[in-house]
Amino acid sequence: MVSSTSYMPEYDPIAWAAHLLRTGRIVAFPTETVYGLGADAANAHAVARIFEAKGRPAVNPLIVHAAHIEAARRCVAAWPESAQRLAERFWPGPLTLVLPRGPGVVGRATAGGPTVGVRVPDHPLALKMLRHFGGGVAAPSANRSNHVSPTTAQHVREDLGDAVDFILDGGPCRVGIESTVLSLATPVPTVLRPGGVSVEQLRAVLGEVRIRGGSDMGVADSPGRQSRHYAPRARAVAFEARDRCRLPADRPNVALMVLDPQAAEPRPGGQVTAMPHEPEGYARHFYRVLRDLDSLPGIAEIQIELPPDEPRWAAVRDRIQRATSLGT
Ligand code: TXA
Ligand code: MG
Questions:
Q1: Quick one: the chain helix, strand, coil %, rounded to 5?
Q2: Residue ID of nearest Cα to ligand 1 atom 19
Q3: What confidence tens digit (pLDDT) does each residue in 120-166 have?
């Protein structure tokens, strides 16, 4: 495995990544949300290697990434007017559209299902690589299945090591949590996973939008909604802000994540990590802080203060609940 941290004139890491994809290899690359583990979406063998490298159940479909609207359209069998409006408004960006699968995407990528999630990521390296490659790139988050999503190239290295053929290093991810997944294959557009594009933003374009509600159990067509999908190794527990005073003080094996109006760049060191008090900042750092706390020696439990139950915090609360026993 080779990793590129800086541009070397004698070799272009982006052209190399595209070449590897064309020859059936798997490549980790940065997006604005989290790092993806990519393979040619038209190559069943390459796609199978993704599931293998991640230890991902074959029933969990992958998102296909494209360089622009035209390339995304080639991955789907239908392109309703609503998709065009959403794509024009939010792409490149953290919105995945679930539509009928097109012939250029192998069934393995969609877990054999009739639909495919497509998106155009908002990251210069990802876009360049996708333009070079030309076709669709199937890519889940580049972590081991059930582990915390990676927001740096180092996280990918830690999780996947030599199982990945190449890592394109684009620095830390700007959004920090995964894209919103919106199904346009349902009678009413339905959010399957909250993310960087809010339900309010979607409603402003589409009118009626449903949210897949209730417990995550039995949701066969979006297994990412299963609880503990993003769980760290230490036990993670969530608590509402009003219960903060009831927490036992100074337990040496417990790390706390709390909201703090003063926090900007949270750096876990001691027992308490102050997290940004606004959703974008919180999301940007959440997975990294979880990983950092998880790797501190002696930490057996991570207690996470939930932000307010308000629409603007929906995606962050969703990820906290998945990372903790609250999601079960
Ligand atoms: O931001 C993101 O979406 C990142 C970056 C790499 O693009 N990708 C990502 O992929 O989070 P992954 O595989 O970790 O999560 C994809 C989610 C899963 O919950 C999966 O079940 C759902 O999207 N999904 C994918 N295709 C689907 C489909 N055809 N129907 C319903 N859900 C789908
Ligand atoms: Mg994932």
A1: 35, 20, 45
A2: 224
A3: 999 999 999 999 999 999 999 999 998 999 999 999 999 999 999 99
